[in-house]
Structures are given as C-alpha cells and as structure tokens.
Amino acid sequence: MDRLKLPRSVLVRVLIRSFTLQASWNFERLQSLGVFYTLAPALRCLYRGEELELACRRHLEYFNTHPLLASPILGTILSLEEKRKRGEESYLGVQEFKGMVMAPYAAIGDALFWGAVRPLAAGVALFPAVRGTLWAPLVFLGLFNVPHLWFRVVGLFRGYFLELRVIENIQRRRLPDLAIRLKEGTVVLLGGLCAYMTFLCLRDEAVAVGWGLVVLPLVVLLGRLARRGVSTLLLVLVTSAILLISTHG
Amino acid sequence: MPVADYLTAASVAVLAGLDRTAALQMMVSRPIVVAPLTGWLLGDPLTGLQAGALVELLWMGRLPVGAAIPPDDTQVAIGSTVLAITMGHLTGFAGSAFTILCILITLPLGKVGQLFDRWARHWNGRLLQRAQDAVAAGQFKKAEQSHLWGLGHFAAASLGTFVVIVAAGSLVLYHLAPLLIGPVRNAAPWLQVAFPVLGTSIILSSINVRRSMTLFGASFTTALLMLWLL
Questions:
Q1: Rounded mean pLDDT, A4-22
Q2: Which of A125, A220, A243 sits opposite B190 (nearest CB)?
Q3: Which of B26, B192, B212 has its CB closest to that of A201?
Q4: A183, B208 Cβ separation under 8 angstroms
C-alpha cells in the first residue's frame, strides 16, 4: 500500500479542535466525545464506510487525561491510526496506547499545570496586582500560556511525527521534577507576598512590624484545619467574622 | 447603571465560563484576569483588580483534578466586581472596604456554580448517547455536532451562576450594606492580610512539597525583616 500521510491542513484542524476537547465532558466517559470530535477530520480522511464507523466507535470509548497534555497523545493516536490503515504492525494498538498513557499524563499534567505553573503565574502576577498595576492580568496570561501553547501545539506534532517515541520524549523532560521545583518557587513567592501585605497593613495601622511574625503560626494552624477537611469557605467566613467582631467599635 | 452594562458583564461571564472547562483554557477565566477585564468594561478596572487579586489568593490552591468540581471562582470574581461597581452607584458606598464586602457576600454563592456545572456535565451524558446513535446510523457529521452542544450546556451553567450571584448579591447588599459597611471598613486592612494568609495556608496544605513550611517561613521572615530594615 502507498505510504499514507495526513495532509497538514487536517493536522491543523485537529489542533484547532483539540482546544474544545472538554466541551462535552460528562460523568459517563469524561472526554471520550471530545476525543472523537478532535480526531474526526483525520478519521474521515483515513477511512470510509464501515471502517470509519469502527474507528469512530473506537474513539467514543472512555478517555480522560489532562487537557493541556492531551496533544501528544492525540498526535500519536493519529500516527497509529495511519499505521493501522496501512496494515502495518505496531507493538501497541490505539486502544492499548490510550489506556496506557492517559492516567500517567493526567497525573503529570495536574501536578505541572494546575499544581505548579498556574499558582506560580498567579503568585508572580499578584505582586503587580497588589500594587494596583493593570499589567498583572497580562503577566499572568503570558506566564501561563507560553508553556501551555507550547505543549498543545508542539505536543501534537511531536506525537504525530515521533509516534510511540513521544513517551520517551516526555519522560526525558522530567516533568514531575520540574513541577516540584516550580512549586517550591511558588511557596517562596507566596512567603514574600504575605510578608509584603503584612508589612503594609502593620505600617498603615501603626503596629510594630515584629507582630507580623504572628502570621507564621496562623498559617500552620489554618493549614492544619484545611488538611483536616475544613472548607475554604468556612475558614474565610469564620476568620472574617472574628476580624469584624474584634475590630468593631 | 444601564442594562447594557449588565449584558456586557453577562457576556464576559459566559465567555470566561467556557474558558474555564469547555474551550481554550487560556486561563482568562482566572479571577486575576477576568475581574479586571469586567471592571475595565464597566469603567472601573481597579475595583476589578482588587476583587480579582483577593479571590485569586483565596482559591489559588483549589485544583480541578479529575471529576472534582471546585466552587465557581470565575463567577464569584465577575459577580463581586459587578456588584462593587453597580451597587456602589446605587448605595453610595465605594472603596476597598465595599469591594471586600461584595466578595464576602458572593463567596458562598460560588457553591451555586458547582450545582450548575454538575448539571451541565450530567446533560452532556445525553450528548454521548446521541453521538453513539448517530455513528450507528452512519451520520458522522451529526455525531460531531453533538459534541458542540456541550458548549451550550457549559455556557448556560455559567450564565445561570452569574445571574444567581448578581441577583442574590444585589438583594443582600441593598438591605445589609448600610449595616455591614461600618464594621467591614474597620476590619478592611486586616481582612486584606487575612485573605492571602488563608489562601497561602490552603496551598501549603495541599501543594505536596517537602519542607514547604520551612521554605515559606524562611521566605516570609526574610522578606518581612528586609522590608522593616529598608
């Protein structure tokens, strides 16, 4: 059979569609309909008739991963579908590949993007925000979206061209380690931010700066309560009520 | 405040609501972005910036992991900005104390967003069945369109949350603002510190970094001492 390659226009359509991966997120099969919708232009290009129906059914199966790390998976799925169409053997089928990588990629993505990049970007942007600078939202968007878009765009093409080697490619980047470093940076930033806000408050209220150190045991106490499952909302309302009562009159 | 302003804010609420889960996820939906954007469109970006920064600090550590649905901080940020601007005009109150009061009133209403979001995801389950039926019937275009209906469900959920927050918040503020603004004004400087301290505590409890308290303590103490000495 002739070497079959998807046209670049189809890859671009898949890329654009991948930005709506979670539009039909549901409790039954999570992102499955999104994966089907994203891959549909490529499936229509590769298959016809009954083969197309079978391919569609394959991608309506359960699927869930991190939305920003889905691109390398989707790219590899495309290359595996191409192989399948050409009748070539692969040591991993499409379904096996999806089943093997979606959970680890979800864990990596959650730790990296939701747990590290987003809080770090917010921590940096909060400094100009506290000073009343309107650049803060742009700082946040820039810091978050550079890695986000890189993973989405480059990830899809790497997945497609590297095929199963994309797994090694991602492993080599040691993303979980990077996530931990970024989280440590966020903790340091938040320490600085809390100190700055505490200093401003104490100075304006004419209270000795040394009292600011009271914040440390408070953070430990509130952190313990949060770890024991006390809701953020309850902590906010109780803390606010205590402050409103104690400063009244 | 003209109806056009409410419609503008509602449009932002819908678009940001879609960015939150269903489309793009460029994080325009984060409070620190969407609240100043709403404020800018309503003519007061600094009120939006203050509301956005405080809400961001509180919910920075809540992660949308797996099937967990966190409270709708996007609509809380938009709602508190809209209320601070609109109700400020109506009641004559303004400034950071009034913005904090608006945040305190809208925060519990963020829970409503979880209900609407769950409803949208539940309805999306029907789309899956519709798509499977369409594929079985050989109607592949129809199956693809089923996915896009999900955008409508998420948009409706965001709009519903926004309407509830603004309507309930306006009602509560109209009746209680004259009573509460005095105590909130007294406590405002302390509340502005309490929010980041609380948000940080919650992040440290869930960030999963060894010696996070040591790192935080060292950073906090060093920064406080340097600010004091300088």
A1: 93
A2: A243
A3: B192
A4: yes
Contact A39, A57 (CB under 8 A): no
Please tell me the pTM assigned to this model.
Answer: 0.94
Instruction: For residues A216 and B162, give the distance between their C-alpha atoms in angstroms, rounded to a whole number.
Output: 36
Residue-wise pLDDT tens digits, A140-154:
999 999 999 999 999
Whether residue A163 is predicted with pLDDT greater than 90 in this model: the reply is no
What is the per-residue pLDDT across A228-246, written as a single tens digit (0 to 9) for each? 989 888 999 999 999 999 9
Chain B hits for A209, CB-CB cut-off 8 Å, are: 224, 227-228
Residue that has been written with the tokens 């309503």 in this structure:
B42
Each domain of chain A, given as residue ranges in start order, spans 8-184, 211-249
CB pair distance less than 8 Å for A195 and B124? no
Q: Report the C-alpha gap between B138 and B152 in whole angstroms.
A: 24
- From chain B, pick out residues whose CB is under 8 angstroms from the CB of A14: none
Helices A175-204 and A94-109, packing angle to 10 deg: 30
Task: Select from B49, B56, B91 the least CA-distant residue to B76.
Answer: B56
d(CA B116, CA B159): 9
Q: How much is the pLDDT for A7?
A: 92
Q: Which residues contact B58 (CB under 8 A, 6 or more apart)?
A: A232, A236, B73, B107, B195, B198, B199, B202
Band (A1; pLDDT cuts 50, 70, 90): very low
Q: Residue A30 — φ and ψ, nearest 5°? A: 50, -105
Read off the tokens for B142: 């129809």
Is residue A195 within 8 Å of B173, Cβ to Cβ?
no
Q: What percent of chain A has pLDDT over 90?
A: 82
User: What does the domain layout of chain B look like in residue ranges?
Assistant: 3-186
Q: How far apart are the first and last CA of chain B?
A: 45
Residues B72 and B110 sit within 8 Å (Cβ to Cβ): yes
Find, among B130, B27, B136, B123, the residue nearest to B73 by Cα. Answer: B27
Dump pLDDT digits (tens) for B155-168: 999 999 999 999 99
